[in-house]
């Protein structure tokens, strides 16, 4: 009897939630009292499955033109160059245990998360700062039925405060390229990791240049590109140890170029593209023409750092230990 009541309660909550989403999507006022009566009546008539399906269909997520364009260019569920196989390697880079608790910063969309979730069976907490992509990310998590072990929150990179010693590992992509005050973010990463845990930080680095405005014109936020040594110093100042510093510019360039080479075929497969999505795709391509140029000239680079929170009582590193090679 207790199980039956729990199932009934779950169906009621799901139906109410979907009805609320439907009202929000249609721009209507949500009448909670009337909806409860309707749901109860349908459940009582043993027609819950039909109502459930109807409400779900009405609340389907429709991506905006910009995300449609980005998915065509970079792949389903992606807003930047990336590869499923490469993303699956990230948890292993930090030796994350299968049951480890992982923080995933800035995936942008569900594509990178699906790859990480395929490689890591433990709990994953996603933190996304792009307001424009957060709804799509949430829908992707639900569609992939990852809700039991994946949660998603939208945060402010400049102000978010993590709990102490919460995570066995952390993955961050591009967050430091769009954060106006990176020392705070580095300190929070140090704080939230358990002693001995590591984080993978992937980011653009480079010196300030006038062309950056064009190269990042289609970004979701204003870029804050720092020098390679500055990025390393943020973590040193936060007390973290630098385990690895890898230049992945060529790898990143190849992934981006392959996406552009395949764009013609992708557009053919997509059929008639809406004007708004086509315009977004054109803007993205124009911005990336300059970004690829800067990456090719090495005026902009892509780095992958692995940093570790020292164990309690572990002696501090020498002040030059985190200095970049060369």
Keywords:
326 residues, alpha/beta, Rossmann fold, 2 domains, 49% helix, 16% strand
Detailed description of the structure:
- This protein has 326 residues and is α/β, with parallel strands linked by helices.
- It has 14 helices and seven strands.
- It has helices at 2-26, 32-44, 48-58, 65-74, 84-88, 90-93, 110-119, 131-143, 182-192, 212-215, 228-238, 249-261, 263-270, 275-296, and strands at residues 102-105, 124-128, 150-154, 167-173, 193-206, 241-247, 300-308.
- It has a seven-stranded mixed sheet with strand order 3-2-1-4-5-7-6, with helices on both faces.
- Helix 1 packs across helix 2 and helix 9 packs across helix 11.
- The chain starts with a helix and ends in an 18-residue tail after the last strand.
- The model is unreliable at 1-10 and 46-58 (pLDDT under 50).
**SSE string, helix = H, strand = E?**
HHHHHHEHEHEEHEHHEHHHE
Strand line-up of the largest beta sheet: 3-2-1-4-5-7-6
Distance between the termini: 70 Å
CATH domain fold name of the largest domain? Rossmann fold
CATH architectural designation of the largest domain:
3-Layer(aba) Sandwich
What would CATH call the homologous superfamily of the largest domain? Answer: Vaccinia Virus protein VP39
Mean pLDDT: 86
Number of strands: 7
Helix/strand-derived category reads alpha/beta
Number of DSSP helical runs: 14
Which CATH top level class of the largest domain fits? Answer: Alpha Beta
> Residue ranges: pLDDT <50 for 5 or more in a row?
1-10, 46-58
Radius of gyration: 22 Å
Domain module count: 2
**Largest β sheet strand count, sense and barrel closure:** 7 strands, mixed
Amount of helix = 40-55%
Percentage beta strand:
15-25%
The coarse overall form would be globular
């Amino acid at each position: 009897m207790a199980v039956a009541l729990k199932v009934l309660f779950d169906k009621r909550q799901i139906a109410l939630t979907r009805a609320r989403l439907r009202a929000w999507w249609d721009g209507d006022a949500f009448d909670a009292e009337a909806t409860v009566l309707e749901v109860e009546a349908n459940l009582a008539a043993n027609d819950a499955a039909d109502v459930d399906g109807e409400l779900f269909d009405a609340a389907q997520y429709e991506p905006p033109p910009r995300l449609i364009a980005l998915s065509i260019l970079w792949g389903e569920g992606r807003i930047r160059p990336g590869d499923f196989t490469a993303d699956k390697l990230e948890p292993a880079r930090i030796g994350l245990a299968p049951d480890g608790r992982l923080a995933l910063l800035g995936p942008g969309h569900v594509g990178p998360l699906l790859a990480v979730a395929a490689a890591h069976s433990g709990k994953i907490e996603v933190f996304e700062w792009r307001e424009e992509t957060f709804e799509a990310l949430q829908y992707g998590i639900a569609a992939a039925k990852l809700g039991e072990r994946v949660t998603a929150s939208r945060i402010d990179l400049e102000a978010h405060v993590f709990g102490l010693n919460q995570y066995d590992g952390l993955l961050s992509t591009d967050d430091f390229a769009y954060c106006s005050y990176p020392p705070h973010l580095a300190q929070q990463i140090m704080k939230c990791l358990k002693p001995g845990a590591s984080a993978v930080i992937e980011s653009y680095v480079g010196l300030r240049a006038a062309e950056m405005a064009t190269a990042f014109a289609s970004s979701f936020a204003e870029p804050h590109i720092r020098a390679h040594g500055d990025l390393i110093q943020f973590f040193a100042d936060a007390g973290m140890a630098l385990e690895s510093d890898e230049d992945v510019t060529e790898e990143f360039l190849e992934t981006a170029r392959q996406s552009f080479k395949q764009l013609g075929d992708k557009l053919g497969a997509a059929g008639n593209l809406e004007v708004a999505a086509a315009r977004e795709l054109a803007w993205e391509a124009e911005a990336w023409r300059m970004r690829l140029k800067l990456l090719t000239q090495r005026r902009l680079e892509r780095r992958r750092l692995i940093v570790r929170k020292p164990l309690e009582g572990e002696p501090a590193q020498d002040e030059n230990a985190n200095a970049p090679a060369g």
